[in-house]
Q: What sequence folds into this?
């Protein structure tokens, strides 16, 4: 039996690109159906992330024009990860496989053929891994590289150069639903779900139009979230640092007592100030890191909804 595919596309203020990329997605869906790789009942599901421009209106008119376009809308902007999850959970019971892709045309739709072939061969997760980074600015490239290195050093298992372009089977989606955490970082959670997985590489191009919604602040936020959601290594580093500094201080104490007994103590303002500044800095950073974790616990205990859908272009019945 041919699998039913849902292409899940989170969209935030994408009025400039959506008219173009929606055509690209539809053409791909058609082509895949013609090649008999997917069922005729496959759909493209847009998730509007509380856009402030005409993105939702565009989605509605697309849905009116062609029944293969579907749309749901979040009640406000909740971020890329939240919208993606909303789309995946919406699609979970309606299809056999989902492929999540950005709305801006950066991810090459032709990689979908290979993804679906891998699924047919028995894989439940297929990661889209970008083979190049020339389309990125030097800044984006180096910050992204640092991000992956830091994440892996901190013990969060993420696939190198893989963003959120991936195929998931409905079996994986059903298990993913059981991961109840409010702080979301799909790239870290999906490898934890397990199942047979593989990756296909593709060339990532530049945005067709508009500009990125990931500012440096959002990227750093994502990195901190990723690390603190998946690893307690930073806390262990603090402990180790504490032990090291205590040992050094112990030596320092013995040294100062010896100096005192030898009667050679002089006023050591500079050395004192340096030590106080150094220890003070480390203490503040450590408290900050602990605070990150406590904040996470605080947010998790509230169990607030992870996404809120208030509009759909279709009736659920
Ligand atoms: N996006 C979203 N909510 C946000 C920010 C982004 O749904 O708050 C969507 C956006 O419309 C796009 C995808 O997430 O489809 C990736 O965002 P973007 O292209 O701006 O990031 P970049 O590719 O530059 O990392
Ligand atoms: Mg993009």
A:
């Amino acid at each position: 039996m041919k699998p039913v595919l849902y292409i899940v596309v989170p969209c935030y203020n994408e009025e400039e690109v959506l008219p173009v990329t929606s055509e690209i997605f539809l053409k791909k869906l058609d082509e895949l159906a013609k090649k008999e790789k997917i069922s005729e009942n496959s759909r493209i599901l847009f998730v509007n992330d509380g856009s402030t421009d005409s993105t939702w209106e565009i989605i509605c008119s697309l849905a009116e024009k062609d029944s293969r376009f579907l749309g749901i809308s979040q009640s406000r902007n909740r971020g890329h990860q939240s919208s993606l999850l909303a789309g995946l959970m919406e699609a979970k019971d309606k299809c056999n496989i989902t492929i999540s892709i950005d709305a801006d045309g950066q991810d090459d739709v032709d990689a979908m053929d290979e993804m679906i072939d891998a699924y047919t061969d028995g894989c439940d997760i297929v990661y889209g891994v970008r083979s190049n980074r020339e389309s990125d600015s030097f800044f984006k490239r180096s910050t992204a590289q640092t991000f992956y290195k830091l994440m892996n050093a901190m013990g969060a298992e993420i696939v190198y150069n893989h963003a959120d372009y991936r195929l998931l089977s409905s079996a994986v989606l059903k298990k993913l639903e059981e991961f109840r955490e409010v702080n979301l970082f799909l790239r870290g959670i999906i490898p934890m779900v397990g199942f047979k997985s593989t990756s296909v590489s593709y060339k990532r191009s530049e945005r067709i139009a508009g500009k990125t919604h990931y500012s440096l602040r959002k990227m750093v936020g994502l990195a901190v979230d990723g690390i603190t959601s998946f690893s307690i290594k930073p806390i262990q580093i603090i402990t180790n640092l504490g032990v090291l500094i205590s040992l050094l201080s112990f030596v320092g104490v013995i040294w100062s007592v010896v100096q005192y007994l030898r009667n050679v103590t002089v006023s050591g303002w500079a050395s004192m100030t340096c030590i106080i500044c150094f220890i003070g800095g480390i203490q503040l950073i450590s408290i900050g890191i602990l605070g990150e974790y406590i904040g996470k616990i605080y947010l998790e205990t509230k169990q607030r909804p992870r996404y809120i859908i208030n509009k759909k272009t279709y009736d659920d019945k």
About this structure: Residues 233-302 form one domain. The pocket of magnesium ion (ligand 2) is lined by residues 102, 104, 106, 207, 212 (CB under 6 Å). The first strand starts at residue 5 and ends at 11. The CA atoms of residues 275 and 281 lie 10 Å apart.
